[in-house]
Amino acid sequence: MRVLFLTPLVLLAACSGEKPPAPAPSTNAPVAAPMPPEPPVQTPVTAREVHEKNELYEFDYSYPAAAGAVPELKALLDNELEEARRELKAQATEGRKAAKESGFPYNPYTHTVEWKVVTDLPAWISLSTLVGFYSGGAHPNYVYDTVLWDRIAAKRRAPVDLFTSKEALRGAIRARFCEELDRQRARKRSGSGRGDIPEFSDCIDPTEQTVILGSSNGKAFDRIGILVAPYAAGPYAEGDYEVTLPVTQKVLDAVRPEFKAAFVAR
Predict the structure, then answer these.
(1) Contact yes or no for 116/64 (Cβ under 8 A)
(2) Which has the minimum average pLDDT: 88-102, 135-149, 165-179?
(3) Span 47-157 CATH architecture
């Protein structure tokens, strides 16, 4: 038989007809943590991206938030966007008219620009892009472009203008550039049956290609990129070439005095 033991307090409540008081909440019960305050709403600096497609042309143009955060640079890129779109529309209109007069089918023209950050330094921002286009030829093509923005002067500069002259920069990088270019050529051509291609066997002038400035430490420029579009160093089938070179003391010696602080030799 089960025996029920009642405490005096329970017996007293039973005799008086009153309900026993509710037990006090345990001090060991978990307490819900207060909700953290909502973070302040911030309006992010967004990149601009434009896509336009119709029967006449297809146009794409974009740039990253880092570029959009610099008002003068944003204005420059916005102006280039509108100019590129106007030119594409005019060329496509003329191309469609010519195709109709000749009795040929018309294929819409295209223009594509996607700016990307090469490096973002306290005093500089370096961008590069592949500009793709089709204007009625046998196949689409592309070239490279770059923007080097001087934050202090609030202006665009050509990378080669940071050096005393094109000749000085060429003399500082040509040997290494040619060596790397030939190495890449050999890799692309091995097993292809092409071997040496007479018209694409000599070295080319690196300063006549798209020169970009980069950084591995986020503090100063310590490398130079040479972007080579199709047909410049090889046939279209080989595509482009990209050669990256370190900033050596020889390169540093070719930098203009007022820009030397922006570079460091590796």
Answers:
(1) yes
(2) 135-149
(3) 2-Layer Sandwich (3.30)
Mean pLDDT across the stretch 52-56? 97
Return the domain boundaries, the chain: 47-157, 160-266
DSSP 91-137: HHHHHHHHHHHHT-----EEEEEE-EEEEE-SSEEEEEEEEEEESSS
Question: Which two tokens mark 35?
Answer: 């909700």
β-bridge partners, 145? 129
Express each pLDDT in 17-50 by its tens digit.
444 444 444 445 454 545 555 555 444 455 899 9
Q: In this structure, are residues 56 and 96 in contact, taking their beta carbons and an 8 Å threshold?
A: yes
pLDDT digits (tens, 9 = 90+) for 65-99: 999 999 999 999 999 999 999 999 999 999 999 99
Q: Which CATH number fits domain 160-266: 3.90.640, 3.40.395, 2.60.120, 3.30.70?
A: 3.90.640
DSSP secondary structure letters along 222-263: -EEEEEE-TTTSS-GGG--EEEEEE--HHHHHTB-GGGGGGB
